[in-house]
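User: I'm preparing a small set of examples for a lab meeting where we compare how different chains pack in three dimensions. I only have the primary sequence for this one, and I'd like the structure in token form so I can line it up with the others. Please keep the answer compact; I'll paste it straight into my notes.
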Amino acid sequence: MRKSKLFKRAAWIVCSGILLLVLSGISCGAYCFFSPNFMPEKTAYVYIYPDKDYEDLCRQLEDSAGCSDIRTFRQAARLLKYPGKMNTGRYAVTRGMSNYELLKSLRRGYQAPVRITFNNIRMKQDLADRLSQQLMIESHELMKLMNDSDYCRSMGFTPPTIKAMFIPNTYEVYWNISAEKLMQRMKREYDAFWTDARRNKAARISLSPLEVAVLASIVEEESAMTDEYPTIAGLYLNRLYKGIYLQADPTVKYALGDFTIQRVLNRHKTIDSPYNTYMYGGLPPAPLRIPSIQGLDAVLNYKKHHYLYMCAKEDFSGRHNFASTLTEHNQNARRYQEELNRRGIY
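Assistant: Understood. Below is the structure token output for the 346-residue chain.
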């Protein structure tokens, strides 16, 4: 009888111990999973690259996401078998987030979108570089598509004109978007920009959307003063309608591939290029740059006047003198050239 009581007591102690261990394990597990473990001052972002380096992710969590205890994150990740289920992307880490909350986002690929911007861009390589700086895409991936004639044709463009498809704005995309999906997104944005109203305005001035982009690119290269855009657009439209060569200095710089030229000379104007509007009539075959929305709308809503000539003001303010006659233009040009000479700009 005594032995039976001792056995029951021992069994109770063992069971109690096991129960305590189980409860302790549950408590530790709950703490590991659900307690706040990330305390960044503001929302932080971690990036998982194609190599899916788990150790790099842990370093990011410690270095920039305010991780209080990386050991508990590792424990929770191991229990959820996360290291084998990594998804590329950009993920938000908010203040007070638990290991479970973060791992749920990481495992399921719940990314935080990134806002991309691009403006003031001339060349395709510059565009590819700018986008690759903001996304997981490599610049060569975009360049391959933008230089592929068949692919550009499927979008309604050619390799030289594909720049016109990119409408400078701020867009939300996922950081790990592929090059092809980004191009498709830009085509949708292009189609959305060219509404029936804008297309009708372009038709009324006898230009296609691409030609509007080409003219807008010249306008923007001519002046940094946005309030001059509609006037400059009207000037070049006047020349186009009268069959006068545009004789736009930016087209010569583009043909030469040198935008640092401060003074376009007669020797520069002899370059044989379809972009040289001193040698060839009409518009160049493709935009000189990616025009802004403001530049595109300046062409569509150009200012009506009789100007045929323009020349930079001699005060170097960045503004221009406009003229309707060659005599008046020559007077403006002489004052500007004299100031160039005085400043030693050749």
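A couple of notes for your slides: The two ends are 117 Å apart (CA to CA). The longest helix spans residues 2-34.

User: Perfect, thanks.
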